[in-house]
Amino acid sequence: MSYKVMHICLSDGWGGLEMYPARIIPELQRQGWEAHGLALAGSRVAESLAAAGIEPLTVLSRGRALLQVGRILAYLRRHGIEVLHCHKSSDLRLGALLATLRPTLRLFFTDHMGVTRPKKDLYHRWAYGQITRLFAISEATLKRNLAAFPLPPERIRRLYLGIDLSPYAPQLDAVAREALREELGVAVGQVAIGLPGRLTDGKGHAVWLEGLARLRERAPSLSWHGVLIGGLTAREGSDEAYVAQLRTRVAELGLVEHVTFTGFRPDLPRLFEALDIVCVPSRNEAFGLTVVEAMAAGKAIVGADSGAIPELLEAGCGRLAAPHDPVAWAEAMAELGQDAALRQRLGQAACARAALHFDVTTHVKALISEYAGKESKP
């Protein structure tokens, strides 16, 4: 077979799902595969693919993509592409149509979101029936996938996501780190407690802020500063109305002088260096990419005891707190905030676990093994 794959992501949003193709393209190429992309014209996905070194085929809308199926098939034939990989369930209409019209295509789908309802009606039986392999990104989503999708268990596989770990290795000297902390509003000697990620409902910002308010009571002698890392606009992947609600709640809790909104930052690995504790209070993560990034950076982590996060953050690598309990968050942050040696031990264990299980090289090796597999579609 030809070692070529087209990643299809017709999304105008910007999150982990949309970032995935560009994240793995360099490693795909390093392992001998030629990558192509199909994206919406002008989207962040299209921009990220171009930045990763490939010029994607673009369409104006999902509807236009279906109308231009002949153009897409011609592109696949011209480039000798036999593998398609979809990342949004809505893109499977196109992927399944392409696979129906050209039965030699192998179609893969990653369920990045974690399906929440059964998909076994006539349409979904047809669309998912064209899939060679469906990837669940955690054990938590695998259970839901097995129950929801009209596929036999052997065609669904759990495949953890992976990242390039190298950017998260420390690079700043003491002076540069202190300068960055000062830029983030963290005073000398303060414990920096960060929450990275999109500012959207479901990511747990509210319980984290409530936890910070209670942290003042739980550990009155602890000097700390909270850092909210994430875009503040829709273009940057955040919910602007939600951002406004968070700012209001910060004021109501008397935390204006204690919490910094950084806005979008392209230097997240360096920001991790400036933090002492990383919090991920998302209520129902299908995977938890931010957790893995913080692990790779060797940070002490508090994660929500829900979704896939407990799988990633095993005992000895961090702390878990109930996603709706601000008191539990305050207690976990107080424990880590008051014990620098504990933070170091947890961070070292987390970093070792990330290297063992969540490296992009390992992920892509498993992925291309599936791409090149001998299984045939029914």
From TrEMBL:
Gene Ontology MF: a single term: glycosyltransferase activity
GO BP terms, alphabetized: carbohydrate derivative metabolic process
CDD domains to which the protein is assigned, alphabetical: GT4_PimA-like (cd03801)
Transmembrane segments: none
Start and end residues of each Glycosyl transferase family domain: 177-350
Domain of life: Bacteria
The keyword Transcription appears for this protein: no
InterPro entries cross-referenced by the UniProt entry: Glyco_trans_1, Glyco_trans_4-like_N
Keywords for this protein: Glycosyltransferase, Transferase
Pfam families xref list: Glyco_transf_4, Glycos_transf_1
SUPFAM superfamilies: UDP-Glycosyltransferase/glycogen phosphorylase (SSF53756)
Ranges where the Glycosyltransferase subfamily 4-like N-terminal domain occurs: 14-166
Similarity comment: Belongs to the glycosyltransferase group 1 family. Glycosyltransferase 4 subfamily.
Full protein name: Glycosyltransferase family 1 protein
Provenance organism: Billgrantia tianxiuensis
Lineage: Bacteria, Pseudomonadati, Pseudomonadota, Gammaproteobacteria, Oceanospirillales
